[in-house]
Design goal:
This protein has two domains: about 180 residues, Rossmann fold (3-Layer(aba) Sandwich); about 100 residues, no CATH class. The protein is about 45% helix and about 15% strand. It has a six-stranded parallel β-sheet, sandwiched between helices. It has a two-stranded antiparallel ribbon with strand order 2-3. Strands 6-7 form a two-stranded antiparallel ribbon. Helix 2 crosses helix 5, helix 4 runs antiparallel to helix 5 and helix 10 runs parallel beside helix 11. The longest helix has 16 residues. It is globular and about 60 Å long. The protein binds magnesium ion.
């Protein structure tokens, strides 16, 4: 076996997030309309147009720093758009209050999204679960929400698929206890086609990865991490020595493909079968 551990992102990697998101957007926008009033739809359309001019640079700002491309998935997009609207209207200038509000909106409305799996999602999960290599889901979403989606998928071997939610891949912060492995991770990296830096020291995500590596006794070098958003899913594990795999979608930014290509142990594929190929399954 090429790997001893496979870690999978879920939303956008195993699901078609763009197709899932219509009911999410509907209830999210309804809540926003109630909250701030005025021409929310007009402001919203304008913010979308601005975002689409340069989705890499108009990133998702979390605690004052860009932590992911703003258009990477509908959930990020909603947050980025609302940040633009708040800025424009001068609403919620207090950063902590705004962050709490945005997180609340996301978590309340996420469960309203449909579940639309990507082609072959079930077969790929079943093949992974039938292999001797432990496979786990590591996601920013709430554990229960993703568990429910996987229950709906109902793959053979479901009971072997553990989900670790609330991974906080977007938080750039030192881990509670650092170590030699994390110390090697630089502050930033550059990617061809992106003007800003990519921030690498995501301590909360690291703490979870470290726990999984400790519990399984597997080294980063023997781990494959697959995801659909380079900065959130792959940039840190790639720098810790894991192999990384970018599953492409329409909204994948050119810089994400360039970054993965430039990384030792980095690869991409248009579909999920690419994960199996890499794992030799
Ligand atoms: Mg994802």
């Amino acid at each position: 076996m090429r790997y001893d551990l496979i870690l999978l992102d879920f939303d956008g990697t195993f699901t078609d997030v763009e197709k899932e998101a219509d009911p999410f957007f509907a209830s999210y926008k309804a809540e926003v309309r109630e909250l701030i009033g005025g021409d929310v739809d007009g402001d919203w359309a304008e913010a979308v147009a601005t975002l689409e001019q340069n989705p890499g640079e108009f990133g998702w700002v979390f605690e004052g720093q860009v932590v992911a491309p703003g258009n990477a998935d509908p959930y990020l997009r909603a947050t980025v758009i609302l940040n633009m609207i708040f800025d424009r209207r001068g609403l919620y200038p207090n950063e902590a209050e705004r962050t709490e509000l945005l997180q609340g909106l996301y978590f309340r409305n996420y469960p309203k999204a449909d579940t639309v799996f990507r082609a072959n999602a079930k077969q790929v999960v079943e093949t992974l679960l039938a292999s001797p290599v432990p496979t786990m889901v590591v996601t920013n979403s709430a554990t229960d929400d993703v568990e429910a989606k996987i229950d709906r998928m109902a793959p053979t071997g479901r009971e072997r698929l553990k989900v670790y939610g609330n991974a906080k891949k977007y938080i750039v912060a030192e881990p509670d206890e650092s170590d030699a492995c994390f110390e090697r991770v630089p502050e930033t990296m550059r990617a061809e086609g992106l003007e800003r830096d990519i921030l690498l020291r995501r301590g909360r995500y690291y703490e979870l990865l470290r726990t999984l590596w400790k519990e399984t006794g597997v080294k980063p070098e023997r781990t494959l991490v697959a995801g659909d958003i380079f900065e959130l899913d792959l940039a840190l594990p790639g720098h810790l020595g894991a192999d990384v795999h970018l599953v492409l979608k329409d909204k994948t930014q050119p810089f994400e493909r360039a970054a993965v290509k430039a990384m030792e142990g980095g690869a991409e594929s248009p579909g999920l079968e690419g994960i199996l190929e890499r794992a030799g399954l």
